[in-house]
Design a protein that fits this description.
Number of strands: 18
Distance between the termini: 86 Å
CATH architecture of the largest domain: Beta Barrel
Helix content: 10-25%
Largest sheet: 5 strands, mixed, barrel
InterPro entries: CvfB_fam (IPR014464), CvfB_S1_2nd (IPR048588), CvfB_S1_3rd (IPR048587), CvfB_S1_st (IPR039566), CvfB_WH (IPR040764), NA-bd_OB-fold (IPR012340), S1_domain (IPR003029), WH-like_DNA-bd_sf (IPR036388)
GO molecular function, one term: nucleic acid binding
Strand order of the largest sheet: 1-2-3-5-4
CATH topology of the largest domain: OB fold (Dihydrolipoamide Acetyltransferase, E2P)
Family: Belongs to the CvfB family.
Shape: elongated
Number of helices: 4
Organism: Niallia taxi
Protein name: S1 motif domain-containing protein
Order of helices and strands: EEEEEEEEEEHEEEEEHEHHEE
């Protein structure tokens, strides 16, 4: 095995000698030394001790090690929170080492508005580049599928929550707390969720392979309630009257209220049925206690 084959992995190495700044460990098969800096361990060792370490490389490509074993390694995945974001570089993850690991911008969505934020969660592993440097690699669909649980028809219409592990203009892919692998079509979300973002939704279809389709939109009754509140709040801001009715143009309604004309009409109909508003001369008015 070449040195490259050890990088990003946990190995048992032997202490060869001690220096003023740390220990040198031997890769016996390679005859190479790996530095274990004193800052990377809280233990004392003797020459000849065999110790379990994680092997990585510093910024100059030199082999180093740590007795702090990270939650991920090459080929081993885990859910890890985003620790920092650097514009022009990408996202950094704290995997338990002194140095955070980078998920480069080339492996992130094209549009930065759907990049993860600090605290978002991704299922990741490590990869070694051509210069023997370690970087974060997000899980692909086959990896997510390998850890997923199949949903059944009994799960239809259930509320779920989970994290977005892949995102695109056509939709987003989610891994739920139950272990379901799902897809959110662009028509079933108001905005495109961030990569790694935790979202709440409901199951709208269970496929034959056990994967699910998810909607992030509220149920019709929940949406109606929210839309009614939106219309009422706008009326109250305008002292009880607004130049919008069920005859208004769809474009006007979408621009002002962020809802379709159908949703707006249902909200108005509910408010009129509850005797809270009325329409007159092309305006909608908030009813007062005297009316």
């Amino acid at each position: 095995m070449a040195l490259r084959d050890y990088i990003g992995r946990v190995e048992i190495l032997t202490v060869a000698r001690e220096a003023s700044f740390g220990y040198f460990l031997t890769l016996e098969e390679e005859g190479e030394d790996v530095l274990l800096h004193f800052s990377e361990t809280d233990q004392k060792f003797e020459i000849g001790d065999e110790i379990r370490v994680f092997i990585y490389t510093d910024s100059q490509g030199r082999a180093c090690s740590s007795t702090n074993i990270p939650s991920i390694s090459v080929g081993e995945y885990d859910w890890v929170k985003v620790a920092d974001i650097k514009e022009g570089l990408g996202c950094f993850f704290d995997i338990g080492l002194k140095k955070d690991m980078l998920l480069g911008e080339d492996d992130l969505p094209v549009h930065e508005e759907v990049w993860p934020e600090v605290g978002d969660l991704l299922y990741i592993t490590l990869r070694v580049d051509r210069n023997n440097l370690l970087y974060v690699k997000p899980a692909t669909d086959p990896i997510i599928e390998s850890i997923s649980t199949k949903a059944t028809r009994a799960d239809y219409n259930k509320n779920i929550h989970g994290h977005i592990y892949r995102t695109a203009k056509v939709g987003s892919w989610i891994y739920t707390a139950e272990g379901f692998k799902g897809f959110i079509h662009e028509s079933e979300r108001k905005i495109e969720p961030r990569l790694g973002e935790k979202v709440n939704g409901r199951i709208i279809d269970v496929k034959e392979d056990g994967t699910i389709n998810v909607s992030l939109l509220p149920r019709k009754e929940e949406a109606l309630d929210e839309d009614s509140k939106t219309v009422l709040a706008y009326l109250e801001q305008r002292k009880g009257q607004m130049p919008y009715t069920d005859k208004s143009m769809p474009e006007e309604i979408q621009e002002r209220f962020g809802m379709s004309k159908g949703s707006f009409k249902r909200a108005l109909g509910r408010l009129m049925k509850e005797n809270k508003v009325y329409q007159e001369d092309g305006w909608t008015h908030l009813k007062t206690e005297d009316e």
